[in-house]
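From the methods appendix. Each design record in this collection lists the discretized structure first, followed by the designed amino acid sequence. Records were kept in a plain field format so they could be parsed without special tools. The example shown here is representative of the layout used throughout.

RECORD:
C-ALPHA CELLS (459 positions):
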C-alpha cells in the first residue's frame, strides 16, 4: 500500500502537485530531435537535467540516448550560458560530426534569460557551425507546459528549416506527433499502401527501435533527413496528427511556406483511423486498398466478437492530450466508459473535447488538465468512484496495486515493460493490438476472480 495515505476527501490545492501526470519539457524536445537523421540533441543547462532527460528516454526505449549538455556551473548560472553553448557547438561538430545539433533550453537557462537566437547566430557568424550543418533550437522552460509542449516546440524548430522555392514536390508532410517509433513505421506503411508520397518529421523509427547489429553507430540509419526537412516547404500540404504535438509546426509551414495544413486526431482506434485513411485517400485521389479494408474488417470483427467484455467497463486514464482524446473516442465507440481522465499538459480545450466525446454517457466524466491534474487527484477520484480498468503510463502501477485494478500500460513513459517500441497501436492493426492488451488484462482478472463454477473455457 505505497499510496495508503491518499485520502478519499478531495480538497482544493492551489500550489501543490503530487505525482504529476507529465514529465519535463526538454524530454519532449530531446525525443523529437532524435527523429532527425544525424542529429545530436543538446541540453542547454546543467548536467543533471541532461542526465535525467537521457535516462528517462533510455528507460522507455531501452536504447542508449546520445545527447550533449552545456554543463552549467555556478559561473554560468550567474553570468549566463553563452560561452558554454558557443564552446559546446564548436566541440560537438569537431568531435561527433552531426548533421544537425538540436538545442533546447532548461529551467535554469530560461530563468537566466539566455537568448538562443542570438547565441546561435553568433556561433554561425563566428564560423563554429560547419558549412552544410545546422543548429536548430527550441525554448523549453519546464515550469510551463510539459514534455508534450517541449516536443511541439522542437518540431516547430524543425519546420523552420523548410525552404519554399515555389515549386511543389508532390509530397505531403506528415507530422505524426509524439507516438512510438513503431507507430511512425505504421503510419508510413499506410501512406505507402494508399500511394501517398510523404515527408514525415520527426521520425524516430529506425533510431529508437533499431536492431542490435554488433556495430556501434553514433547516428543510426533512421530519422528525417535534412534534405526532406528543407523540401517540406514545397509540399502540397501537411497532415498534422494531434493539436498539442503537431499543430504549431503545421501552422508555421502554412503561414511561412504556403503549405496548407489540416489537423487531425492521432489515428488511434477505429474512427480516428478512418478519418486519417480518408484524408490520405482524398489526397491520393484513389480508393482505399483492399489490404487496409481487410485490416479494418479484422478490427471491427474483434470489437464485435469481444463486445461483452468491453461493455460498460469503466476506465480511468492518465496521459497526454492528443493520445487521450483519440483513445477516449475509441473506448466510447466500443461501449466502454471513460470515467476519470487527467493530463499534466495544460489546455482547457482538452477538457472540453473530452466532455464532448463523452456526451451521452449516463454520468459526468471527471476530467482535468494542467499542473493540478495529477495522479494524486486521479487516485482520489477512483477512491470515490471505483473503475474496472486503468490505462496510462508506468506510474499508474502504484494506484493499480493499491486499489487492485488491472492496468494497461500505454503512453509515456513505460519504464517497466517492453514492446511499445516494436508494436504499433495506431491504425487498424494498432487498434487490434490495443484491444488485445485491454482484453488480456480484463480476462486475466476474470480468471483470477471467477468462482470455480464459472472458471471455464467459455469464450
Ligand atoms: S530543472 Fe527543469 S529542465 Fe531540468 S530536469 Fe528539472 S524540470 Fe527538467
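DESIGN:
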Amino acid at each position: 500500500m505505497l499510496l495508503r495515505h491518499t485520502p478519499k476527501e478531495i480538497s482544493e490545492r492551489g500550489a501543490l502537485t503530487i505525482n504529476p501526470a507529465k514529465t519535463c519539457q526538454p524530454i519532449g524536445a530531446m525525443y523529437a530531435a532524435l527523429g532527425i537523421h544525424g542529429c545530436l540533441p543538446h541540453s542547454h543547462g546543467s548536467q543533471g537535467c541532461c542526465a535525467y532527460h537521457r535516462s528517462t528516454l533510455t528507460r522507455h526505449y531501452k536504447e542508449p540516448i546520445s545527447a550533449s549538455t552545456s554543463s552549467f556551473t555556478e559561473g554560468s548560472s550567474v553570468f549566463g550560458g553563452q560561452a558554454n553553448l558557443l564552446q559546446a557547438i564548436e566541440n560537438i561538430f569537431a568531435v561527433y560530426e552531426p548533421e544537425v545539433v538540436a538545442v533546447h533550453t532548461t529551467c535554469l537557462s530560461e530563468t537566466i534569460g539566455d537568448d538562443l537566437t542570438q547565441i546561435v547566430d553568433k556561433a554561425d557568424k563566428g564560423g563554429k557551425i560547419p558549412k552544410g550543418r545546422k543548429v536548430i533550437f527550441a525554448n523549453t522552460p519546464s515550469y510551463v507546459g510539459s514534455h508534450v509542449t517541449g516536443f511541439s516546440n522542437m518540431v516547430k524548430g524543425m519546420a523552420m528549416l523548410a525552404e519554399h522555392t515555389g515549386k511543389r514536390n508532390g509530397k505531403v508532410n506528415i507530422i505524426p506527433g509524439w507516438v512510438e517509433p513503431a507507430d511512425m513505421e505504421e503510419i508510413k506503411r499506410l501512406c505507402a499502401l494508399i500511394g501517398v508520397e510523404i515527408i514525415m518529421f520527426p521520425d524516430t523509427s529506425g533510431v529508437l527501435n533499431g536492431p542490435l547489429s554488433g556495430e556501434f553507430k553514433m547516428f543510426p540509419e533512421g530519422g528525417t533527413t535534412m534534405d526532406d526537412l528543407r523540401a517540406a516547404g514545397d509540399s502540397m500540404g501537411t497532415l498534422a496528427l494531434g493539436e498539442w504535438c503537431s499543430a504549431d509546426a503545421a501552422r508555421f509551414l502554412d503561414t511561412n511556406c504556403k503549405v496548407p495544413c489540416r489537423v487531425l486526431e492521432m489515428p488511434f482506434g477505429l474512427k480516428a483511423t478512418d478519418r486519417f485513411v480518408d484524408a490520405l485517400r482524398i489526397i491520393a485521389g484513389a480508393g482505399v486498398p483492399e489490404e487496409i479494408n481487410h485490416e479494418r474488417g479484422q478490427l471491427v470483427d474483434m470489437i464485435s466478437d469481444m463486445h461483452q467484455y468491453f461493455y460498460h467497463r469503466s476506465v480511468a486514464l492518465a496521459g497526454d492530450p492528443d493520445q487521450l482524446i483519440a483513445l477516449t473516442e475509441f473506448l466510447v465507440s466500443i461501449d466502454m466508459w471513460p470515467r476519470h481522465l487527467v493530463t499534466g499538459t495544460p489546455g482547457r480545450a482538452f477538457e472540453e473535447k473530452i466532455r464532448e466525446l463523452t456526451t451521452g454517457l449516463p454520468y459526468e466524466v471527471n476530467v482535468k488538465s494542467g499542473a493540478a491534474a495529477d495522479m494524486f487527484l486521479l487516485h482520489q477520484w477512483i477512491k470515490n468512484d471505483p473503475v474496472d480498468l486503468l490505462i496510462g503510463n508506468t506510474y499508474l502501477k502504484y494506484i493499480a496495486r493499491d486499489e487492485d485494478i488491472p492496468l494497461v500500460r500505454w503512453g509515456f513513459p513505460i519504464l517497466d515493460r517492453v514492446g511499445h517500441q516494436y508494436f504499433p497501436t495506431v491504425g487498424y492493426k494498432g487498434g487490434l493490438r490495443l484491444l488485445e492488451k485491454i482484453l488480456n488484462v480484463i480476462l486475466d482478472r476474470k480468471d483470477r476472480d471467477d468462482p470455480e463454477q464459472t472458471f471455464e473455457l467459455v469464450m
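APPENDIX NOTE: The chain has three domains: 25-159, 172-208+217-287, 293-452.
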